[in-house]
Amino acid sequence: MDWIQLVGFVEVGRVGSSYTANELLTDLKYDAGGSVRALMAGLVVRADLAKSPESTNFWIMVDHPF
Predict the structure, then answer these.
(1) Among 37, 29, 38, 36, which Cα is nearest to 10's?
(2) C-alpha dihedral over 33, 51, 28, 46, to 10 degrees?
(3) Domain map of the chain by residue range?
(4) DSSP string across 8-54
(5) Nearest-angstrom CA–CA distance, 56 and 34
(6) Cα gap 64→32, rounded to integer Å
(7) What digits encode the pLDDT tens for the residues 2-56?
(8) Within a 13 Å sphere around the CA of 65, how many CA atoms are in the beta-carbon half?
(9) Positive or negative, the Cα torsion across 16, 8, 57, 48?
(10) Rounded-to-integer distance, Cα 44 and Cα 66, Å
């Protein structure tokens, strides 16, 4: 293992039918969580846990998502 990171995050946003501040800045949704990331054998492996008022999600990814 070359390195390990602990990352916290918060996301806020909304999907709207039009691209206006009035539409996109009302009824916002949010989540918060944490991630553990490690570089192993040239690949980034990450495990993320996010919680919102609607649900909790956990996922594991190999390499960067983009």
Answers:
(1) 29
(2) 40
(3) 3-62
(4) EEEEEE---SS--HHHHTSS-EEEEEEEEEEEETTEEEEEEEEE-SS
(5) 12
(6) 20
(7) 899 999 999 999 988 888 888 888 889 999 999 999 998 889 999 999 999 999 9
(8) 7
(9) positive
(10) 12
Find out whether 47 and 33 touch, Cβ atoms under 8 Å.
no
Structure tokens at 11: 């996301």
| Amino acid letter, residue 59 | W
The one-letter amino acid at 46: R
User: What is residue 66's predicted lDDT score, i.e. its pLDDT?
Assistant: 65
Q: How many residues does the chain have?
A: 66
